[in-house]
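Example 546.
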Amino acid sequence: MSDRQTLASWKKLQQLAQEKKSQHMNTFFANDVKRFEKFSIELPNMLLDYSKNLIDSETLDCLLSLANETEVCDWRTKMFTGAKINKTEDRAVLHTALRRQSNDPLIVDGENVTEHVQNQLAKMEVFVDKVRQGHWLGYSGKRITDIVNIGVGGSNLGPQMVTEALKHYSDDGVNVHYVSNVDGAQIVEVLRPLDPQKVLFIVSSKTFTTTETMTNAKTAIKWLTSSSFDEKSVAKHFVAVTANKENAMGFGIEEHNIFDMWDWVGGRFSLWSAIGLAIALDLGFDKFKELLEGAYEMDQHFINAPLKDNMPAIMALISVWNTTFLGAHSQAILPYDQTLHMLSAYLQQAEMESNGKSVTWDGDEINYATVPSIWGELGINGQHAFYQYLHQSNNVVPADFIGSVESVTPVQGHHETLMANFFAQTQALMVGVDEQQVRADLKAKGRTPDYINKVSPHKVHKGNRPTNTILLKRIDPKTLGSLIAAYEHKIFVQGIILQICSFDQWGVELGKGLAAEIQEELSTNSISEKHDCSTASLMKFYQKAK
Ligand code: F6P
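Predicted structure in complex with 6-O-phosphono-beta-D-fructofuranose:
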């Protein structure tokens, strides 16, 4: 059992949760005109309003006590200074070193991490400039026009999410494409319009063993060499980003075309490393640096701000409150900025792969809820699809609403409509409308008593649905960097409070191992008796139907 439950703050929070469950946020707002001031944090490029949660000052104080009792600040120092806080893999957790704006050495296992990072950034810059300026030529002497990033999970989601979010800042340098799925339909579709003479592939894989990525990379090599008729063309069209140089070289990628990754960078926190090469190629290296600077600014805020004014810490505490104490099972990510359309997919991996666990970092069973299931969609699309559920279902889904003050692509009249919805939804979710009001509104519209009786129950919104609002100045590389870093640190704080090792992902291994065995059985047509009868029958059905 986790010893977290023995803490005084934990016990108090359990008691407060029972009390608060029967209260309505409307009362909190009615009783406290300063609620927004008390429960919001303003940073230079964004604002977090967390006042629309079922908390009051007593709850917040108690959550802050929990952060103190679980020594969040000490753990934060350990992370930033390279202590091996990834306990199960005995690794440091230093994605923050990738954006550190300092030349001071940072030593892990006798190696200066700062030097490694700076060397790779310098190598990236030279490479990016060479490709973008047309000095990197393909096998037939033509300049590179298209980049295809082959990678999955953390070697795909971060770079692709950022590429999509910062499209506005992309110039005509090169076009960037992503292939993550081993379903051949994706790579075929991506490569169809491209000219092999002008394409550069980035094989992004920390381990360089991921089957899906290796399969796609092999197909890409075949596609290239069936045009060049020359194995040597691989050197001009393939680079790799990996912590496993040996495998990448064994794959045929030249040593000087390999960018380093390290075991102290988790895949889902790696977009700041050379895994972000596709971003830098798309936007130019200066913009990539701005992204890093934005993340660094959030790191500084996270390190220096007292917990009560600390955006990532507060986001984590609210999530723990809603999930572990109030019992919410899921959390929606609802961006009201088209550019952030991949944010929920990105955060799904970031949060669920990090904290979706049921034992403590010492291996003891946990009997409290940890991370909620993360899901979401662009808010406006969601409004016309699943918001019915958010407003009126029996399941309460806390949600993060993320919008921008300024649109990067202003079109007359659009942004105000968008933002009107943005503000309206969190108000509606919180305030709701009771039966008395519903009846009065219908009566004012001249509806008959029969109609009012019939329809009223359906129009009642209980409200009291928790939301955070994150209002960004505008989407630009710096602000986006800060936003992503805020979520990274939120996940870290959540992990510490819940006593979870947020930086391993043992839960993905079982399925991976089985898939390899099943692939072998399918290819040799020898289905093993050891499978359960459902799996064995499905495999047999598939083989027969082929
Ligand atoms: O299987 C999960 C995972 O290991 C993720 O943690 C990781 O981001 C992804 O696969 C890709 O791994 P790699 O970069 O080693 O190919």
